[in-house]
Amino acid sequence: MHDTASMVAWSESPFIGVSFGYRIGALGFLPSSLSKKEDVLNLGLRDQVHLLEWVQENIAKFGGDPGNVTLFGLSAGAHSIGHHLLNYKENAPSLFHRVIMESGSPTSRAVRPYNAKIHEQQFQDFIHEVGCPAGLPEDEIFPFLRTLPSSTVTKAQTAVFDKYNPSLRWAFQPVIDDDIIYRKPLDAWNSKLWNKVPIMTGFTTNEGSMYVDKKMSDPSQFRQFWNNLLPELSFSDLDTIDRLYPDPSVDPASPYIEDREGHGLGSQYKRIEAAYAHYAYVAPVRQTAEFASSQGMPVYLYHWALPRTVVNRANHGDNMYYESYNKGITGISESQKELSGTLHAYLTSFITQGSPNAIKGRYSQRPEWQAFEHNDRSVMTFGEGNNELIGGSTAPAANFVKDEWAREQTEFWWSKVPISQLA
């Protein structure tokens, strides 16, 4: 999906791109008390650490610099990077020197203890789905699991994953393991003990569009969604959510009135999509910017706003297609080429030099991207007002502006992070 080869090839300053696979699903994240005894917690994160250690030991042989390593990840990759960022070990050697976290952060998902009630239940559901014999002695369960074909594991993990939708209850997620994640992410930020490196991070306008029910039409469904996702929300909290996201069925001034005809969209879709985007992605990303910048690290915050399709608009991960400056994007139009080239220039400059402004190159006239500051919150927007792909007009590729979009909504969700972490 990510055209890393194109991104490397077009960079004004050379760098080596290293991609790899790590274990996901039940193979990478199967938490339980038994998993702890078997020493198999957070195997996916351990795989990532091994890769970083490999880079330190070997990248010089390929012409790379082990003292100039940038971690780069989107969504779950960004969540993972967040956990490595917060995994502070005194006097431990540095495995990376800056990070790019796209649409993700260590507080984007619930991070519970490995033996939380929900994880123990998901573990039991999983071993039932794979056909683990009832009454099998505890010390024989993992040996049994290791005999299974991958197709059985995949089918079972899909069933369990689907059972625990939506995202706060997703199975097969990183957990507090007393090792890589040895404390809650909020506790880690507040401790001020984390791997302090420069950060580039950001979000898209419509992060929620691929995750929520596009046919939602009843206002009661909207409220029930949040009650299911966060049962600890009070009635007052739910009323606040209703105020922050005015119901289009009763408020003619609501910004969430659905006006896209012919796509089968429910009257509550625009509303739930916005609220989920703010909760699951925008608020956590801004949280990273606030914590890191207030503790002395440069943070470069972005907002990807280009709508690629009528229904999903500026969808989760859309910027991925533009940052690599590949011909599938640059060949669309001059406007799309400029947007892609501008984003690519910022990212590759940050990757190689630690600043998005250091290397001017082909897009030397791009706006200066200043570091985020708590007392002067600003953000680089990409594609704002450019509706070319959905039948509208073009607009400048990038603008550096005050970060005020959906501010009240995301500050509310930020205040609810602690209840997201309850075991």
UniProtKB/TrEMBL annotation:
EC code: 3.1.1.-
One Gene Ontology term from the biological process aspect of the record: antibiotic biosynthetic process
Keywords per UniProt: Hydrolase
Membership in a protein family: Belongs to the type-B carboxylesterase/lipase family.
Keyword Ribosomal protein: no
PROSITE patterns to which the protein is assigned, alphabetical: CARBOXYLESTERASE_B_1 (PS00122)
GO molecular function, one term: hydrolase activity
InterPro entries per record: AB_hydrolase_fold, CarbesteraseB, Carboxylesterase_B_AS, Type-B_Carboxylest/Lipase
Keyword Hydrolase applies: yes
Residues of the Carboxylesterase type B domain: 16-387
Organism: Penicillium daleae
Record-given protein name: Carboxylic ester hydrolase
